[in-house]
Amino acid sequence: MWLQFWRDQRTDFHQSVVNPLLSKFWPELRLAQGSRVFVPLCGKSLDMLWLAQQGHEVIGIELSPVAVEAFFSENGLQPTQQQVDAFTLWRDGPISILCGDYFALTTNELGMIDTVYDRSALTALPEEIRGLYVAQLSRLVSDTAVVFLLTAEDAAEDATMQQATGVDEEIARLYTGDFDIALTYVESVFEADPVSAALPCIRAEYKVYRLTAR
Ligand SMILES: C[S@@+](CC[C@H](N)C(=O)[O-])C[C@H]1O[C@@H](n2cnc3c(N)ncnc32)[C@H](O)[C@@H]1O
Predict the structure, then answer these.
(1) Number of domains in the chain
(2) What is the distance in A from the centroid of ligand 1 to the CA of 163?
(3) pLDDT value of residue 164
(4) What string of H, E and C letters represents the secondary structure of the chain?
(5) pLDDT tops 50 at residue 158
(6) Which domain holds residue 67?
(7) Is the CB of 102 under 6 A from ligand 1?
(8) Model confidence pTM above 0.85
(9) Bigger pLDDT: 201 or 133?
């Protein structure tokens, strides 16, 4: 499905600017220069460029070679390519992307990771395999890793204003076993219905979580 989406250029999820919640709240993590940041299911996200500009070494994983090629060419980068087990490793300076299946990844290919940036990675997957995604993440990262997780949810069927809610029930269920969960920011906004401007607005909630492995 994803491979076809990329071939057909059905990439509405791609953001043409750096995610504003990333640039606003990431500095609160106070990471050391040179920290390695893992970006699962990275697509061609410009957020990787921003993370590299903050002095991090960025390593993404992405299934689609179309996405990986687009990331480097659209940003004027000239990556080298190298086969690493079942993956093709594309690299230019501080940004590397392993092209292949996240669920087949091991620490042999990924190396040591203590920070993760997740925007539309967990939520890109069907609900029935999100538990496997989190279990795989736990296996891949260090015992004290921090996951900076951004989520976006439609908060209500109608457009009535309610109090911003707390930790999403699914996030709590998926991560509680291996991570401490802190919800650090919630933004509640009314947005036009993407189907038609004639429909009532939808209330969306954007949340920033800091998950700490234990
Ligand atoms: C919703 S997009 C999000 C991309 C990126 N995080 C962003 O913010 O633009 C999800 C991405 O995950 C990739 N993907 C889906 N399943 C994958 C898997 N098993 N391994 C690696 N990448 C995968 C898709 O090709 C797609 O680019």
Answers:
(1) 1
(2) 31
(3) 53
(4) CHHHHHHCCCCCCCCCCCCHHHHHHHHHHCCCCCCEEEECCCCCCCHHHHHHHCCCEEEEEECCHHHHHHHHHHCCCCCEEEEECCEEEEEECCEEEEECCHHHCCHHHHCCCCEEEEECCHHHCCHHHHHHHHHHHHHHCCCCCEEEEEEEEECCCCCCCCCCCCCCHHHHHHHCCCEEEEEEEEEEEEECCCCCCCCCCEEEEEEEEEEEEC
(5) no
(6) 2-9+17-213
(7) yes
(8) yes
(9) 133
